[in-house]
């Protein structure tokens, strides 16, 4: 069974701006369903397409099945079938043995900066970079599938 174990954190904007990082990659992604128990995500990157099915999270773990699809078909699926979509720039940064994925959201989610780290077990030890703020693993507000319908710009602080 496909499993994703991932922890999610907010990023300190000021410190992040000072980090030396490789160029980010533009991601466009949308969802074929609005169902809290499962998501079917279509993602288009600069040169690749993906179809990803995810289950509900238990702790930092959820079922995940991902398939690469032709990028042109990912675009067609997004254009024709997705209920809602978002875009972001994803940065990948190696820290110790792990790769952090930092998303700078665009459009209605501009201002939101979220970092994720994929692990091989829930209790795996990893290094927290100094640009990490609080942990938001499991907070549904930050699920990308939620951000398409409840974007950051509409949140009340
Ligand atoms: O890139 P992923 O698989 O971590 O997924 P995402 O679409 O960026 O976000 P979420 O963890 O909210 O599904």
From TrEMBL:
It holds the Pfam family CYTH. It is an enzyme of class 3 (hydrolase). Residues 2-149 form the CYTH domain. Keywords: Hydrolase. GO terms for molecular function: inorganic triphosphate phosphatase activity. Its EC number is 3.6.1.25. The active site is at residue 31. PANTHER family: SLR0698 PROTEIN. This is Inorganic triphosphatase. It comes from Chryseobacterium salivictor.
């Amino acid at each position: 069974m496909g499993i994703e174990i991932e922890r999610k954190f907010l990023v300190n904007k000021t410190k992040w701006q000072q980090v030396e990082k490789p160029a980010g990659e533009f991601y466009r992604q949308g969802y074929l369903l609005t169902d809290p128990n499962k998501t079917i995500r279509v993602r288009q990157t600069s040169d690749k397409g993906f179809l990803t099915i995810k289950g509900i999270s238990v702790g930092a773990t959820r079922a995940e099945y991902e398939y690469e699809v032709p990028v042109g078909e990912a675009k067609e699926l997004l254009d024709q079938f997705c209920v809602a979509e978002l875009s972001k720039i994803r940065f990948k940064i190696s820290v110790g043995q792990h790769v952090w994925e930092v998303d700078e959201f665009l459009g209605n989610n501009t201002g939101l900066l979220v970092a994720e780290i994929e692990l091989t077990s829930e209790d795996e030890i990893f290094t927290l970079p100094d640009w990490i703020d609080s942990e938001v693993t499991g907070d549904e507000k930050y699920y990308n599938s939620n951000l398409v319908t409840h974007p950051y710009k509409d949140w009340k602080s």
